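Meet today's protein:

…
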Amino acid sequence: MRPISIQIQSVMDAFGQQGWQFEHLEGKDVIRTAFEAYHTQVQLHAQAFPQLNAVSVVGETPMELEVEQEPLVLELLARANKRITLGSLEYDLDRSQVMFRITNLFERDKYDADIISSMVHSAIAEVDRITPYVGVVQQTPEDLLDDLSVERLLLRDDLIPPVPADDELE
């Protein structure tokens, strides 16, 4: 059995400091967990890359799409990504998953717990934020898809989850 790297241990410590439950994948520098967000459940994994002194956090939620809906969702994610400074939204066509991925390079082997926590919060928030927009595309009848404006859809702020109070984040 391979020993746990200092990098993934620091990720596990950061999760422990937040009181987040997780599962370490034995023999890998990966942990996984799930969070209940406002609109959806977010499956999350964090992977350490010791050779790069990096950690990547990926949040995802299943979103089945019809073939006709895929181009609109891909446009939606591309346009939403233009507003994101760190990380990016993706759609995994093979697994039908909406994803948000964020990676950070660290200076030392032991990663900063505050940065890791921030990455997790970002992954959860971005997946949860985009879910209702994808839902609108999913619920649009096929004969009306040509009339759906992704640009205008992204202007709808009624779909954005409310910002949690500081005490709700802990």
Q: What stands out?
A: Residues 29 and 83 are 31 Å apart (CA to CA).
